[in-house]
Amino acid sequence: MPEAALFLWRMCNMALLEKIAVCNFRNIESAELEFSPNINCISGNNGEGKTNLLDAIYYLSMTKSAFSPSDKFNFRYGTDFFSLGGTYRLENGLGTRVSLHVEGSGKKSLKRDEKAYDKISEHIGQFPVVMVSPADISLVSESGEERRRFMNSVLSQMDRTYLSDMQQYNRLLAQRNKMLKQEKVDEALLDVFDSRMSAIADHIYRLRSDFASQLGPVAGRYYNMLSGGMEEVSIRYESDLQKGSLESLLASCRKKDLVLHYTSAGIQRDDLLFDMDGYPIRRYGSQGQQKSFLVSLKFAQCEIMKRFYGFAPVLLLDDVFDKLDMNRISYLLEMVAGQDFGQIFITDSNKVRMANIVDAITEDRAYFETVDGTFAKEVCDGVQKL
Predict the structure, then answer these.
(1) First to last CA, the chain
(2) pTM summary value
(3) Strands across the sheet with 95-103, in order?
(4) Cystine design at 146: which of 142, 239, 259, 381 (Cβ 3.0–4.6 Å)?
(5) 3-class SS letters over 205-259
């Protein structure tokens, strides 16, 4: 896409979420909410629906849950469909509506202003979003698959070819692995697969490498702000393609692959390495330090996406104050208040703590409380059920 056209596309798609309608999504039977363009606070006890609301907002942007790989976990108990609708206000002042309907059969219908997308993947990146949640700990504690999923979720929003390239690469990889399991392998056909996979992998590698090179310094800066400069963190990108093209790597690994019956080199092995003062955060970081790092990582994601789009993505902060001491909470909120993060949604089980913190930041905010998936919005003379 030409630079001028890309700029106009970004600006026309800058949007604030004004309203959401939720039906049968997790424990939310029915809800219609109107939001502040600045900060929105959702309080309630654990398991009442705070996170489910944020996930519904995330789903409207990414067409999938931030937490569940399968839609079967998103249906309210006893139902066989769920639907989401969002009304957004664009930069030019016009409104646009996104509607999504998912059935138990797996059928998914996605429309923008009543017009269906040719491919659901075309919607990714239209309404950029960043989620910060306790589930992010898997980025530190689990395998490289989680960190590759993180890179994919960011880059698929910023590059329209990235998602299709990943899908095509994974299809070719699955077919190559299936061939390697055969009793007699056609090595000439393997050459064809290796060549096709290499061209796609090179593009994915370059995008991931560039993203990681931006991510490390920005995350480090946020961590210094959040920790008061007590520790230094770094992020390193690790890929087989740092040794050469995928085609040459696959050629050198062919004998091993034929014995192992799977592909032993490629971008499916990429990883991000997180260090604190030169040591792996997963082993040497406390719970508070790991939480601070993960918040810094997601804030860095937010800043990089803001640079790309020219505006801040919607920021979803789920239970972000947990495991942080008051000093780090103060640093965190100073960052949110001072870095022009755009529209923000915050959940916390401690309503008083959240109100005290947010009231000191801005007068432009909205408060919601949830009990068993039912939401009430605070107004001047009490609460208003939604």
Answers:
(1) 42
(2) 0.91
(3) 28-34, 15-25, 81-90, 95-103, 108-112, 115-116
(4) 142
(5) HHHHHHHHHHHHHHHHHHHHHHHCCCCCEEEEEECHHHHCCHHHHHHHCHHHHHH
